[in-house]
Amino acid sequence: MSIRDERMQHLNMFLLGERCKQFKSAFRSPLVATKLLIEKKKGFEAALYVPESPGREPAWVEFLREGFGKGIRIEPNKLSSALLLVKVRGRIFALTFGHTRSLLKEELFELDFGLMVVVNRVDAHGDQPPVVVPMQS
């Protein structure tokens, strides 16, 4: 099976500035989320946050009710998202899933992080292809 046939997971990763030393200082405002995972192992520390989503009725439900009556019941939509913070060598990386980027203080983002990753990955002679890591099923 070729790499193209395998499922890939695209990741949104941000490096937070050196002045961000603790996970709680990365958040824009007090976080309303459940901390599901805390890992402290040799070499890294990680925490997974899942924001609370109250759910909202879809806007189109009212249109249906106008034509078919108030008895129509549709489950509210809930946004599923998560934020994984990982601290390695004193630096914090944020991996955002869904809409969790908005939870972070944008002024902490290292703006050239993505560029530096690419520059460090490309071989000086241009003969090294990018690494593609397939997801495990």
Annotation keywords:
13% helix; alpha+beta; elongated; disordered C terminus; five-stranded antiparallel beta sheet
Helix content: 10-25%
The best one-word shape is elongated
Tally of separate domains: 1
Q: What is the beta-strand fraction?
A: 25-35%
Number of strands: 5
Individual helix count: 2
Major beta sheet summary: 5 strands, antiparallel
Q: What order do the helices and strands follow? A: EEEHEEH
Taking all residues together, what is the mean pLDDT?
80
Task: Name the poorly predicted regions.
Answer: 133-137
Sheet with most strands: strand arrangement: 1-5-4-3-2
Give the terminus-to-terminus CA distance: 13 Å
Round the Cα radius of gyration to an integer and report it: 20 Å
User: Which structural class fits the helix and strand makeup?
Assistant: alpha+beta
Explained architecture:
This protein has a 5-stranded antiparallel sheet with strand order 1-5-4-3-2, with no helix packed on it. It has one domain. The relative contact order is 0.25. By secondary structure, it is of the alpha+beta class. The longest helix has 9 residues, at 60-68. It is elongated, with a radius of gyration of 20 Å. The protein has helices at residues 60-68, 113-121; strands at 12-15, 33-41, 44-51, 82-88, 91-97.
